[in-house]
Write a structure and sequence with these properties.
- This protein is mainly α.
- The chain has one domain.
- It has helices at 3-33, 45-57, 59-64, 68-89, 99-115, 119-126.
- Helix 2 crosses helix 5 (99-115) and helix 4 packs antiparallel against helix 5.
- The termini are close together.
Length: 135
């Protein structure tokens, strides 16, 4: 595959990653403000959902940002977003603010940060970034 085609493919992949990130944020925001789900299959199952949501939320910035500092800033922003959502839920009927939800969010973020230290994911990340001087 020639360099121009590879760059074009990577640009489309990065656009897809941005769309996935935006879509997940929209879905999470919608689910946070709508009335709570009536039935949970096991005790504290919502904590598992919080963990999974924030773990997957951090996947997109990992692949999007080349610099680790930008990725870590996005992790901080995700954590702050989770706190804001919980505070907003305190003002909604049939919803409440939960420190356990915030802890589950933080656990998902921290575990993803830990997992990304894996060399396989670091190699996959290189696929999304092209250095203009050395494609």
């Amino acid at each position: 595959m020639n360099n121009a085609r590879q760059i074009k493919r990577q640009q489309w992949c990065r656009l897809a990653l941005w769309l996935l990130l935006a879509g997940q944020l929209l879905a999470m925001t919608y689910l946070a403000v709508k009335p709570a789900l009536a039935v949970m299959t096991f005790s504290n199952s919502d904590k598992l959902l919080h963990f999974i949501a924030y773990f997957t939320l951090m996947i997109w910035p990992f692949f999007l940002f080349k610099q680790q500092s930008a990725f870590l800033k996005s992790a901080l922003m995700a954590f702050m977003y989770g706190i804001m959502i919980e505070l907003m839920q305190a003002t909604l009927p049939n919803r409440f603010c939960s420190m356990a939800d915030i802890a589950a969010n933080l656990t998902g973020i921290v575990l993803l940060i830990t997992v990304v230290q894996c060399s396989i994911l670091q190699q996959a990340k290189q696929w999304f970034h092209v250095d203009a001087a050395n494609p």
